[in-house]
Amino acid sequence: MPCGFPDSEGFPLAHSPQHLDRLRLRHLRLLELIADHRSLRAVAQHLGLTQPAVSQMVKDLEFAFGADLVDRSVRGVSLSAAGQLALQRTRTGLATFSHLAHQLDMAEPPVLRIGTNPAVMLDLLPSALTLAALAEEGPRFIIRTGLAHDMTTALWDGEIDCYVGRVDWDEVPPEAAVALRHDPLMATELVVACAEDHPLAQKRDLEVADLAGHIWALPPGDSRNRVAIDTGLRNNGLPAATVRYEIAADPNSLLLLARRAGVLTVVPRNALEATPPGLRALDLPALAMPAVQLGLFTLVESEQLRAVQALRDALRHAAQSATGIAAT
């Protein structure tokens, strides 16, 4: 028996491959217009069509997907739960079509749009991009940096093809999580860093208690690295760090301040080791800060792109050569 979402009379709707073949791009854009206008009449005016024609487009979509996508009421129309999910997935597809059309129009080499975190740009990603095996693929790279949440959102919305960095899975919507392909690459520990001439860098038998009273340069309070150091201090009976410089998503600036301003900071070890000499990691195992897990993330439909596969291989090679804990 065919299965699907129940229609307005309680009968199940079965998805129809035949109707899927008949869909056009404007059918997919229809869901976004309905979400924006909440009126079939307004959508019809926007598209330059009659309202019955728009109603038929809605029916075509619902038959194709086997689900009621639009809820109708005296106040207008809105997307159902299934419609909201379909909207998000079609946004990704439309963004991919738009990106492809731009590439073909410009007659340029293939473009791979990569999202990443600033710390990954200090070491892992540049190492992978410069590998000869990847260079032979010949793609052009467009790289965006930002926080993990912003990058996973950009991936989900089709604005980038892949993301190299950390992901906070508890912040990823379930419908997005099932659409992501995750390839673990490596783990690197968080460390407290300071200049080599800092008093703590010279101290023997260093303990967490010795951090008390020192000034810090740290990311904002809601960042994972900031939470890690504050938790580590609190678990050792110390108050939260005294922060003079707060900088978001820029480990390079944190390290520069540690070098020049004589403050403490917290960064992933691989970021510290990618910077010029003059800084030192303090040996403080009692802080017990969680390691940073790095991976390559793509949407399921993008994982077979040739450029993505080449990047995956290059990242694995670079991760094996990097200082850190091998991911499993």
From TrEMBL:
PROSITE patterns, A to Z: HTH_LYSR
GO cellular component entries: cytosol
Keyword Transcription: yes
GO MF, any single term: DNA-binding transcription factor activity
Residue ranges of every copy of the HTH lysR-type domain listed in the record: 23-80
Transmembrane segments: none
Pfam family, one: LysR_substrate
Family under the similarity heading: Belongs to the LysR transcriptional regulatory family.
Protein name, as recorded: LysR family transcriptional regulator
Organism annotation: Pseudooceanicola pacificus
